Amino acid sequence: MANRRLALDDLPAPEEWSDPERRLWSTFRDGGVLDLRTGVASDDDPAGGAAWGPERQIRALVIAQLLLEGPPARPGKVRALRVTGARVTGALDLTSATVDCEIDFDACSFAEVLSLRHASALAVYLQKSHLPELSAEALRCPSLDLRDAVVEGNVWIQGSQFSIDLNLDRAKVGGWINGNVLTIGTWLNGRFGLHVGKWLSLASARIGGVDLRRADIGHSGGTEAALGAQLLICDTFWASDIRVAHGIDLTGARISGEAVLSGTVVHGAPAGGPAIRFDDMHARRLDIDTARADVESVSLRGTTLGKLVDRAQGGPLLDMDALAYERLEPLPPRSTRLRLTWLTENLGGRYLPQPYEQLAAAYRVLGHDNEARRILRAKHRHHRTRLPWTTKIWDWLQDVVAGYGYRPARAGGWLIALTFIGTVVFTINEPQPAQPGQGPAFNPAVYTLDLLLPIIDFGQEKAFLSVGGYQWFAYTLIGFGWILATVLVAGLTRVLGRS
After folding, report:
1. Using one digit for the tens of pLDDT, what is the confidence trace for 98-141?
2. Domain that holds residue 369
3. Are residues 13 and 61 in the same domain?
4. Closest CA to 232 of 264, 205, 260, 261
């Protein structure tokens, strides 16, 4: 048994391998790190890896042989491929491979495409490395680390599964990142300066959280939305202070937590279309507290939100057709005038009843019932502009008399005013008794109320008759009474029916 252990411990590297490759054989068995750096920052920059000499070069074929058919670990050690500052020559093709150890290339330079398509590994680290392209479709591993890496071409990770995370912090990708149907257990991190030349796509991905703060996406061309995450499912989507070309599209996304896009800059968006699409999205909280100069318009058609945080003055225009939200912030008391202006600008002259009703509901949730009623009156006034002139008269009467039923006290004010006028008139010119010597004594106030109230009968109207011009004045009071009653009943029926 001891002889067998000694034989494994002394297992040599193939003689035809170069010195750095033989050293890698040894560190692979120990789980150690092969560091080929010179210690001079300019000489160790992976961008200049093509100029590195044989003392820093390792063939891709050697790496593949170690990972797929490599020697066992030394007793008491765990195998791992860890190399720093190496130039990998040739194409490292690990397509469909099953690698039972960690793969760690730190500040390395790859001469050709690295392929991990349909592979599985314990972990893949490519931090600070320089690659022409990364092909990792359907890769399965706990973590893929591309922090500070440079990929000249594209990153293909669609259909991959990372049980822990995908780290793209400060990475620079010249082409695109295809992360469609991606699955990540915790976070996709692309923070603090991720640069993507063309686009980043996360369509139909399932991710714990997406963090793209201060990323720059789509700076090197293209015409389509540079950030696309249609049907994305995640807990959190942070994209504050990012810069994106041609638009952002999260149509149909499901975000159980918050989506934050404050300080977002979208440039080159197509004329006539929204810079950001959140159509049919569901989120617990959406923060788009950004300026119109940075984001021209945001489409929220059919979106459902727990809370909407925006900028009422100077914020982006919102397409709010069928938008539903439980709370709107900021929404302090007595801000109705500001929010009505905001609503009018966002509607762009269109009449849509639902945005008014939604805004009123947001005030009502906070207990601001007066503000909610004012918004609903504004809704009816906006609707009046779309009516034919014959209908406008009746609509205008409902507004003037009782505020469409939301201000019933106004009808009482009209009743008091007309009663006062009638009392004065009939005090000066008392009507004649219908049957002299019979009936009650004349009371001008009660007589006026008897004319104004079409249902209640005080007996004054039947007992006394106005003549001449005062008869027409009495008819006018009767007409006003019917108008007041009809308008008030119609308004209250509308309000109580909605309640």
Report:
1. 999 999 999 999 999 999 999 999 999 999 999 999 999 999 99
2. 344-386
3. yes
4. 205
